[in-house]
Structure to design on (276 residues):
C-alpha cells in the first residue's frame, strides 16, 4: 500500500498527471477541428508541461535548498531534465511560427516563477506573477487556453477563425472553473494578499460564479459555425461533471480530490471525444 501511495505521489508531484490533462485538451482541439493526430506538437506539449510546472513548483526550493533536497525531489529534478531534453527534440520538429508562439507562453511561464515585479505590486518577498493579487488563476487559464487551442492549430496551418476564438474562450472559462476547487481547498493556507476568488467573495458565491461561467461555457458552443448534436452533448456532459466537482469541493478535501480527480476531467473529456 505504501509503495502505491509513493507511486501516486510521484505521479502527481512530478506533474505527469497535469501534463496528461493538458495533452488531452490539446488532442481534443485536433478532434474538434478535424485534424489528424499530430505526435510532434502533442508530445512537445506533454513534455513542456512537465518541465514548466516542475520549474514553477520547485524553482525556489532547488535554488535556496539545493543541498538539502529530499531523494524524491532529486528524482523529480532528474525526471524533469529528461523531459526537457525530450521537449527540445520535439521542438526541432515544429514549424517556426509554432516556436514563436511557444516562446510567448514560455516567457509568461518564466515570469510566473521568477521574481521581477516592483515591490509595490507583489506579495511578501516573491516578486513574481504567481503572487500578484488576484492574478494567478487567470494567468494559468490564459496559458492553458493558448497552449491547448492555438498551438496545435498553428502547427497544422489551420486558419484561425471565429470558431477557434470561441473554443479558446470556452477553454479559458473551463480552466478557471477547474481551478476554483484548488483555491477553495487552499483557503486556510493562502496569504490573504493573494485575493483569490474564494477569499474575496466566499465559497458559496465562488461556486455560484463557477455555475455562471459553465453556463457561458456551454452556450458558447451554439455560436460556432460548425455545430453538431455530438459536440453539444459532449460539452453539456463536461459542464455538468465540472460543476459537480466544484459543488462538492470544500476546505477539508484532501489534495487528491483536486490534484487527481479534478485534473482527470480533461482526460475524461478526451475519452468521451474518442469513444462517443
Amino acid at each position: 500500500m505504501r509503495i502505491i501511495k509513493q507511486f501516486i505521489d510521484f505521479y502527481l508531484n512530478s506533474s505527469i498527471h497535469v501534463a496528461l490533462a493538458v495533452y488531452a485538451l490539446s488532442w481534443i482541439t485536433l478532434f474538434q477541428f478535424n485534424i489528424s493526430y499530430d505526435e510532434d506538437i502533442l508530445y512537445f506539449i506533454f513534455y513542456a508541461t512537465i518541465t514548466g510546472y516542475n520549474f514553477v513548483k520547485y524553482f525556489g526550493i532547488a535554488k535556496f535548498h539545493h543541498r538539502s533536497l529530499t531523494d524524491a525531489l532529486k528524482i523529480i529534478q532528474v525526471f524533469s531534465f529528461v523531459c526537457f531534453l525530450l521537449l527540445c527534440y520535439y521542438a526541432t520538429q515544429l514549424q517556426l511560427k509554432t516556436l514563436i508562439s511557444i516562446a510567448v507562453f514560455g516567457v509568461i511561464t518564466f515570469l510566473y516563477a521568477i521574481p521581477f515585479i516592483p515591490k509595490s505590486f507583489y506579495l511578501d518577498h516573491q516578486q513574481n506573477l504567481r503572487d500578484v493579487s488576484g492574478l494567478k488563476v487567470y494567468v494559468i487559464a490564459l496559458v492553458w487556453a493558448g497552449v491547448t487551442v492555438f498551438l496545435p492549430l498553428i502547427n497544422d496551418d489551420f486558419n484561425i477563425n471565429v470558431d477557434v476564438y470561441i473554443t479558446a474562450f470556452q477553454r479559458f472559462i473551463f480552466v478557471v472553473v477547474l481551478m476554483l476547487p484548488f483555491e477553495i481547498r487552499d483557503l486556510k493556507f493562502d496569504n490573504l494578499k493573494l485575493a483569490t476568488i474564494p477569499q474575496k467573495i466566499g465559497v458559496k458565491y465562488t461556486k455560484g460564479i463557477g455555475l455562471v461561467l459553465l453556463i457561458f461555457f456551454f452556450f458558447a458552443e451554439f455560436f460556432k459555425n460548425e455545430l453538431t448534436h455530438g459536440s453539444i452533448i459532449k460539452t453539456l456532459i463536461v459542464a455538468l461533471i465540472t460543476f459537480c466537482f466544484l459543488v462538492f469541493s470544500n476546505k477539508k478535501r484532501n489534495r487528491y480530490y483536486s490534484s487527481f480527480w479534478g485534473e482527470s476531467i480533461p482526460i475524461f473529456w478526451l475519452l468521451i471525444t474518442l469513444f462517443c
About this structure: Residues 116-123 have pLDDT under 50 and may be disordered. The chain has one domain: 2-275. The longest helix spans residues 39-64.
